[in-house]
Amino acid sequence: MATVTFDKATRTYPGAERAAVDKLEIAIEDGEFLVLVGPSGCGKSTSLRMLAGLEDVNGGAIRIGDRDVTHLAPKDRDIAMVFQNYALYPHMTVADNMGFALKIAGVAKTEIRTRVEEAAKILDLTEYLGRKPKALSGGQRQRVAMGRAIVREPQVFLMDEPLSNLDAKLRVQTRTQIAGLQRRLGTTTVYVTHDQVEAMTMGDRVAVLKDGLLQQVDSPRNMYDRPANLFVAGFIGSPAMNLVEVPLTDGGVQFGNSIVPVSREAIAVAADKGDRTVTVGVRPEHFDVAGGQATSLANDEPAGVAVTVNVVEELGADGYVYGTAEIGGEQKDIVVRVGGRQVPLKGDVLHVVPRPGETHVFSTSSGERLSD
Amino acid sequence: MTATDTPTRRGPGAATRLAARAGGGAVRLGLLLTALFWLVPTIGLLISSLRGPADISTSGWWRVFTDPAQLTLHNYTELMGNGTITHALLNSVLITVPVTVLVIVIGAMAGYAFAWLEFPGRDWLFLLLIGLLVVPIQVALIPVTKLYATFGIFGSLLGVILFHTAFGLPFAIFLLRNFFAEIPRELLEAGRLDGAGELRLFARVVVPLGGPAIASLAIFQFLWVWNDMLVALIFANSGSAPLTVALQEQTRQFGDNIDVLSSGAFLSMAIPLAVFFAFQRQFVSGITAGAVK
Predict the structure, then answer these.
(1) Where are the transmembrane segments (chain B) (predicted)?
(2) Under an 8 A CB cutoff, do A100 and B209 touch?
(3) Nearest to A75 among B193, B204, B211 (CB)
(4) pLDDT higher at B243 or B20
(5) How are beta strands A205-210 and A156-160 bridged, if at all?
(6) For residue A360, what pLDDT band results from cuts at 50, 70 and 90?
(7) Best mutation site among B189, B194, B200 for testing chain A: the one with the most A CBs within 10 Å?
(8) Fewest CB within 10 angstroms: A174, A282, B110, B197, which?
(9) What is the pTM of this model?
């Protein structure tokens, strides 16, 4: 067990102008499950491969525990990795696949046998130990890849999108299994995914990357409730947060005909930068469908924003309304969550009000969070 | 296709199927006849090798069908009693086996290095190697002869082995490098993370996965060297000449040693065939290697 520290770790590919991973700074606690998430090309896999020793580190340092591993060979780092395509040795049986690292390390045959069987029992692979990988299903292969990592009892697990080759149902199942297994073993784990649902459900903490730059590291809850900037706000959550650019007014910002409160300091900060507008973010589930009697600026109009329904996605428990609204003289796409039993029809007009305290305000120019 | 013309198509469909079946039979028969025709010289050689010298010189080999009593193992006993031929057979083995082993071992290691190890000038070196593929051995005969004379290995087994190895390597490295490069990168990375050094990675992961390619190469290399005459004719002396050269020496302007020739030629053919059938399974999977992961 060990902590993992990225200390301004940088990777620039030969011939590239911009760093693929730029001064990454994350301190991962002992036993923590950290998820690196971001769109493709954001540097999340590169970061993981730097930690694995499969990618050179051009600047900064990486430490596992107190050990500086920046320039150590992969085999000297005491880590195990699960690859996206599992990378099982096709010519070896499941048992040999799982025991390969121990065999190289010179562990006694009987000891290897016990440890492999133990891991196989945890992963429900006992009856497949004699098979070759090609005779296994995708889910079983995935478990063998996990087993290969577990058997080593390494200080850190690295997982590079281990679920992306599974079908949707199995993915959800395996997601829970991996998270549960990690809690049980208590091994520090770094997990890479492009799927923000995976990130939110599995990680103790989530790190969002974009263009090689770390955007935010936080617990899933905080990530959801207080995204640090526009990118994180838009990336975390499905469907994505509604982000609308609105003009600055005194005492808050005007969203349709309701006022979203923002602290004076925050408005001052934005105004100092010369911004005339800010970006307001509201999650689909934080809109209340108003009956027309809620607080309104103009008494002759119903409160909130009028949303014309274009498409309704019914998910059973609830539904998502995709519509357009005119805000500040421009047509904007708005997504609103509604209850599963009161679904509007296409063409209906809904009046929605952002729930107080559940709105986010970001600077339009820098993208930084202004509200608390 | 619309619904109306479906029935009209069904009639010819059945006829076509019937014709196809009959045609398939005809094609198969044609192929069989072609194969038999192709085999005629070989069958002739086999039968000749089983007839006495007097019969061979007086009548064609097909006479054996009317007169099976002609068949005898006399030629083979003669062959085995002929010291030159048996010695040459041994030489063939002593040349072919080491060359095949050397080419496979060096070629596989170099192929791995070219495919997966990073070192300065790797791509240029590989380009140079591909360039060597087009060098015909004839242009090297005289310089190498001079070189061998300097080192005193002209006319020895070692000289022949070295020449064959050197000229077998470019193709071997080229073939194996390309095959090894197809191995998924993650497999090697997984091996490195599992603690394997380059040598162990090569022996435990790369070579087993490259099995089909290595088997194909081994068969080809064995055949090329076994059937070679030019190199052996020039670089071997009478003590180190392989079977091909020894048999050629048996043909004389007057009164060939036809009995030794036919049986010897058949023997020199049978051994590579045995090798081929021994590795046939790998050979076939080597041809389709990489098609299915």
Answers:
(1) 26-47, 93-117, 124-145, 151-180, 201-224, 230-248, 260-279
(2) no
(3) B193
(4) B243
(5) unpaired
(6) confident
(7) B194
(8) B197
(9) 0.77
B82-287 folds as: MetI-like fold (1.10.3720)
B183 shares contact with chain A (CB less than 8 Å): no
User: How large is the ipTM?
Assistant: 0.80
Residues of A in contact with B194 (CB under 8 A): 75, 100-101, 104, 148, 152
Judged by CB atoms closer than 8 Å, whether chains meet at A85 and B189 is answered as no
Decide which of B260 and A72 is more confident.
A72
A77 phi/psi in degrees, rounded to 5: -100, -10
Sign of the dihedral through C-alpha B65, B67, B69, B70 = negative
* Residue environment code for B137-158, b if the CB has 16+ CB neighbours within 10 A, otherwise e: eeeeeeebeeebeeeebbbbbb
**Does residue B163 contact residue B235 with C-beta atoms inside 8 Å?**
yes
Domains recognised in chain A with CATH numbers: 4-231 (3.40.50.300), 241-363 (no CATH)
